[in-house]
Each structure stands twice: as structure tokens, then as C-alpha cells.
Amino acid sequence: MAPAMGEITLDDTLTKQETLIGPNFTVDAVQGVQQGRNLFHSFEVFNLQSNESVTFSGNHSIQRVINRVTGGQISYLNGLLRCTIPQADLFFINPTGIIFGSDARLDISGSFYATTAGYLKLGTTGRFDATQPSHSILTAAPPTAFGFLTNKPAKIVKNQSFLFLEEYKTLALIGGDLEINDTQIQLSDDVQLNSFIAVPKGEIQLVSVAGSGEMPLHFDLLTNQLNLGKIILTDDTQSVANLQRSIANLDVSGEGGGKITMIADQIILNNAYIFADTIGTQNGRGIYIQVTEELQLNQASRITTEVFNPDNSTQATGKAGHITITAQKITLNDGSQIASTSQTAQAAGNIEIIAHNSVIITGHFSLKTTQGWLQFNSGFLTNTLQAGKGGNITLKTSNLTLTDGGTIRADTQGIGNAGDINLKVKQLQLMTGGKISVSAGHQQATAGQGQGGNLVIEATDRIDITSSKDQTSAIVSNVFTAGKGGLITISAPNITVSQQGLIQSGSDSVGEAGAISIQADHLNLYQAEISCRALQAEGGNITLNIKEQLNLTDSRIFAQTLGQQNDSGNITIQQPIFTILADSRVLASAIAGKGGHIQITTNHLIDNKNNELNASSQLGIDGQIMINSADQKVNDAVVMLPTTFLQATNWLKERCANRSEVESHFIINEFNTVPLSTHLEAGHFLLLTISSSE
Predict the structure, then answer these.
(1) Whole-model pTM?
(2) What's the CA gap between 117 and 148, in Å, rounded?
(3) Interstrand relation of 143-148 and 119-122 (parallel, antiparallel or unpaired)
(4) What separation in angstroms does the CA of 640 have from each of 189, 455, 578, 636?
(5) Nearest to residue 418, comparing CAs of 388, 398, 378?
């Protein structure tokens, strides 16, 4: 609960105890202790109400104004914090807790650090202690760490306030659990704005600590020994305007995108936005999130590093920043997205994800507008809309699940090249519309030379792709432009594609389709498709390296072109012990160009005779179908063993020599016929004529 009135009282640990007079409080250098470029103040109580302010002043040699609250009361800051010392940083320490009210504001030309740590470490030996003031050792050294003395540090709460600093500065909240609660506020009759924390081209640091220890001021010195807490960002705005907000809940965008660092055990975003976008000549610095447990994005939350032009006359030349996230588990729900995109000639940033346990991407967000319904699918995105290259997506996790429209995309709208995707997982599941894409252009964007990206998926256990009735799950690298499709490379011990699931590298324009290469122990297709189709260009090749079993049931493998003069791609199936074809089609066909080759090398080919293998060209030269196999139907050779033993004596017969005076012979004759061509293609069988006479 907020106090009834503002109160600022100096304690007697540094200077004499004094209650300051408001509502415009002033704190100057003589009310503190200066050591070198550090100015220290100590307060027993520090609260600000709406329409109140506090101003810190001192000589221009001061670089840091460091304040602590020792009286054991939470500081409620609902007014203006001002520092008139040019470029001086302001530190505020209260180990009991800090709450920023809706009218909290900052007027500081330097950086701002708010913490519920017990002390601030200075250099290697100094210490400014708010829990035990007598343990303080004041020095001129700069701060190096925030020291926490309890296993449950106090919260820092921000309620609907606008916390803004000048460009290139740092705003840090470092304490126990952090709660950022925002909303849309009516600033005037025609101006609405979501509350925020913003530092243009600067840095925002949010760190939650849940144990004793020291948190370094510079996070590159961070160790894994400190227990971490929870960060929750929530915005309750639900409207079309929410999607068009110009400033995010956390925002360091500017001519050169700033940097955002978040460190916690758990981070939850509810309808919250985090922007580190670039609109100028400098490259973005990116977003870094370290979570020891879960990162969760709900209700169409967004984390972005984007590069775009601020107006029609100004061209941004900086690249988008990268997004780097480490966690145990990452969950994206309800149309939430983590994206690094480019709307200029400059490159989008890369997204690098390590989630030791799992990544779950699911759901979409729909909103009705005057132009119709808008839908946003949850996902990781590195799209490019103009000539800039798309960013790369690298993801390592044990279990990756994309469902209900969840997506991972490194696409281009057609002018620039798409980025690459590299996934290393134990298990991958694509269900009910889950999709992974490195495509170039789309049906409404066919101009340009943009090429599709390369997609590499390595799974140490299995991959499952399953569609629903109206949502196709797919891995695609399609081109709708004059560019070439990318290469899809997939490896896993077990791969199952079912219920209209799709692996596709295609071309709907004059660009060549990409290729598909799959390596597995078991590859099972049930009512599914693997295809390299081209409408107006060369078809791509499909190579399947299968160690044990390939099973095609009511499924299709296509490497064909529908262009009038283009050649089809080839289909190569290598080394499965068993190849099972049931009601399926394998096509490498063309119209006027050359048909592709179909080559199947397998120990056992099981064919229910209701399949189609086609390497023809309607007007051009047919391709070849080559089947190297023992051509054995294993089912025909399998019989049930009897459950009782037979009497061997009932089956014994006299030797031929005892039953006839004519000597018996066993003769292997020479060939008396040429094997049919189908037999040669099926494995180059040699037909032997065996006769016996008595």
C-alpha cells in the first residue's frame, strides 16, 4: 500500500538526521559524503507522492550519486526523480523494496540503477551497506557488484509509469522478483500511449535474484552460483492500437538499436513487447536473455530486433541486432513471436536459442479490424521484406514442438535472400499446422531474385510430422521468385510423416526448386508427401539414405517439373533393408524436358502392385527407373510354425536308386532364355533351369 504522503528523511549514519521539506525536495552534496567522484547519501525513509519531486545536486566533478534507504520501509516512488549534475549516474538502494507508481518519472542525464540489494560493492574492497550501515567502507572506486544478503530479496514493482532516460544511458532494475505492470494511458484527448521503460540507443537491464551472493555490474562476469528469481511483464491493453504501439514496454530502439539484458530463473511476458530496433546508421546491439528455468510468452507478446526506415526519405544503413536466449524451457503461446527482421537493404539479425529441456511453439492471436481479421502465429522469425538478407536461426533443445500454427521461419519477401535455419534436437514434433520454412516470396510477392535459405534438422531420436483436417504441418523451402530454392537436409533415426504432412522444396516461378536430402534408420510416410516440384523451372533432387526401412503407404514422392521446357529432378533411394510400397506414387516426370531418374537400391522390395513409378516426359526424353533389389515379397515367405512335432518316419522315402534301376542325375542346364527387362531392373537376376531325371 502506498503511504498517505511523501516523506524523505536522512538518517544519522553519514550526516545528521534531517527530515526534508516537500513537495519539491532537494538533496545537495553537503547532505552526503563525497569520495572522489562518488557522492553518498543515506536515508531512513524515502517516499514520493504524485506531483512531488526530489532533486539531487552537487559539483560537476561528481560522476555517481549513490543513495541508500536503511529504515526498513518500502520506498514508494510516485513522483519525479531529478539529478542536476550533468551526466551523473543515480543509484537507489533499498533492501526492503521499491515500488514505482503510475506518476513516477526520471529527469536524469546519466544512468539509473534501482536495486533491493543489501549493499553496493565498490571496486574490490569498498562497500556501501544499506542493511548494516556500519559495515560500509566508502571509497572512490566505481561500483562493481550488487550484494544480496538474504535468500529472498525484496521485490521491485513498476506500476504503469513512464521511465525514460536519455539516449545511450543504462536503466537497471536489480532485485528480487520484478513485476512490470503496464497499460494504455490517455495522455490527451487524441493521444494514447502504453506505459514503458525506454532508453533510446541505450541499455535496459532487468535482473531477478532469489538468494544471497553478488550480482556483477558487468554481466560478462556472471557466475552460475547465484540463485535467480522471477520477472513478469504484463500489459492489460487489448485493442487494435495495441498492435501499433510505437514504444514497447521495454524499448531501446533508435538510430542504432540499443541492448536489453534480462537474467532470471523465470521470465513471463503477458501481452508485453520488447523492442531493440534499428532505424539509423549504426548496427543494433541486440537482446540477451538468460533464464535458468522457463521463458514464457503469452497473449501475442513480442521480442524484436528489427531494422527499418524511419520515413520515406531516410534510409537506415545499420543491421538489426541479434537475439540470444538460454533457458531450460521456452514456451510461445497465443501468437507470441521472437523476431529479427529487416525492412531495408540491411540484414536482419540472427536468433540463437539454447533450451536444454524443451521449446514449445503453439497457437495464434486473432483480432478483428476494419480491414478484416488479423492473425499472428506464434514463432521464431527472421524475415526480410526488402533487399536485406534474412537472419539465421540456430536452435538447440531436447524436445521441439510446433503445433496449432506454431512456426519457425527464415523467409524473404522476394528481393533479399532468406536466412538459414539450423535445428539440433532430440525429438521434433510438427502437429496441426506446425511449420518450418526458409522460403523466398509468396503468392502475392513474386518479384526479385531472392533465394530460399538452407534448412538443416538434426534429431538424435525422432521426427514426427502430422497434419490436421484443415492445418498442414510442413517443412518447406519454396521459391515464388527468380531465385533458387534452398537445400533441406534432415537426419534422424526415426522419421514419420502422416495425415497430409509435407516436406517440400518447390518453385512456383522461374527459380529452380531446391533439393531434399533425408537420412534415417526408419522413414515412414502415411498419406504424406515429400516433393521437389517446379512449375516453370528445373525440378530439385530428392535423396533418401535409409538404413533399415522405408515405408510408403498412400503417399507420394515427387521430383517433377510442370514447366514446358524444364527437366525433372531425380529421386534416389539408397540402402534400406526393406522398402514397402503400398498405394503410393514415386514420380520424376516432365512435360517437354527430360524426365528424371528414379533409382531404388534395397535388399527387399515389398510392392502391393497398386503403385506408380513414373520417370516419363510427355514430349521429351524419358528418364530411367532402376531398381536394385532381391525383389522378394517377405510376406509370401513367412509361414506359421506348427505347434506339434511331426513324425519323421512318416516322411522318409526310399532312395531313387533303390526304387529304380536307372541311375538318378541332377543337371544344371545352360540358359535357354533371356531375362525380361523388368527382372534386370529389379536386381539383375540370373534365371537358372534346373532338371532332374531318374
Answers:
(1) 0.87
(2) 5
(3) antiparallel
(4) 86, 47, 21, 11
(5) 388
**DSSP 8-state class, residue 71:** S
Measured CA to CA, the distance from residue 209 to residue 126 in angstroms comes to 22
Which grid cell sits at 500? 497430409
- Would you state the cell numbers that stand for residue 687, as one nine-digit string? 534365371
Top pLDDT among 543 and 468 is at 543
Other CB atoms within 10 A of residue 556 CB: 17
pLDDT given at position 537 = 66
Three-class secondary structure of residue 221 per DSSP = helix
Q: Residue 296 is which amino acid?
A: Q
Please tell me the distance from the alpha carbon of residue 650 to that of residue 635, in angstroms, as a whole number: 30
Q: How big is the CA angle at 648 (ends 647 and 649), to the nearest 5 degrees?
A: 95
Question: CA 71 to CA 17: how far, in whole Å?
Answer: 12
Sequence-distant (≥ 6) Cβ neighbours of residue 331 within 8 angstroms: 294, 295, 296, 297, 359, 360, 361, 362
Burial class (CB in 10 A: 0-12, 13-18, 19+), 671: exposed
Instruction: Pick the range with the lowest mean pLDDT from 144-158, 171-185, 244-258, 561-575.
Output: 561-575
Could you tell me the sign of the dihedral formed by the alpha carbons of 392, 318, 289, 241, in that order?
A: negative
What confidence score (pLDDT) does residue 93 get? Answer: 98
* Neighbouring C-beta atoms of residue 124, cutoff 10 Å: 9
Q: In this structure, what are the phi and psi dihedrals at residue 242, rounded to the nearest 5 degrees?
A: -60, -35
Helix, coil or strand: residue 180: strand
Burial of 677 (0-12, 13-18, 19+ CB in 10 A): exposed
The residue to which cell 510446433 is assigned: 402
Residue 518 is which amino acid? I
Average confidence (pLDDT) over 481-496: 89
Q: Give me the residue label for grid cell 507470441.
A: 336
What's the distance, Cα to Cα, between the start and end of the chain in Å? Answer: 112
With a cut of 50, say whether residue 640 has pLDDT above it: no
Closest listed residue to residue 41, CA positions, set 21, 54, 23, 56: 56
Range with top average pLDDT, 135-149, 217-231, 618-632, 657-671: 135-149
Give the cell for residue 148: 544480496
Q: Please, what is the average pLDDT of the chain?
A: 86
> DSSP labels for 332-394?
E-TT-EEEEEESSSSPPPPEEEEEEEEEEEE-EEEEEETTEEEEEE-EEE--BSSSSPPPPEE
Residue 205 has pLDDT above 70, yes or no: yes
Contact 509, 536 (CB under 8 A): yes
Q: Any idea what DSSP says for residue 440?
A: B
Per-residue pLDDT tens digits for 156-183? 999 999 999 999 999 999 999 999 999 9
Nearest CA to 170 out of 143, 152, 192 is that of 143
The pLDDT assigned to 21 comes to 94
- What proportions of the chain, in percent to the nearest 5, are helix, strand and coil? 5, 50, 50
Least confident of 10-19, 218-227, 380-389, 426-435: 218-227
> Residue 133 and residue 42: Cα distance in Å, rounded?
9
Is residue 497 helix, strand or coil? strand
pLDDT one-digit tens code per residue, 519-563: 999 999 999 999 988 776 677 899 999 999 999 999 999 888 776
Write out the three cell numbers for 200. 533510446
Q: Is the peptide bond before 23 cis (omega within 30 degrees of 0)?
A: yes
Residue type, 189: D
- How far is residue 60's CA from residue 71's CA, in Å, rounded to a whole number? 30
What is the DSSP secondary structure assignment for residue 353, as one 8-state letter? E
pLDDT at 394: 97
The residues that bridge with 607 in the sheet, in sequence order, are 581
pLDDT value, residue 532: 87
CA 159 to each of CA 95, 194, 281: distance values in angstroms, whole numbers, following the listed order? 19, 12, 34
Burial class (CB in 10 A: 0-12, 13-18, 19+), 413: buried
Q: What is the mean pLDDT of residues 61-82?
A: 98
Higher pLDDT, 50 or 190: 50
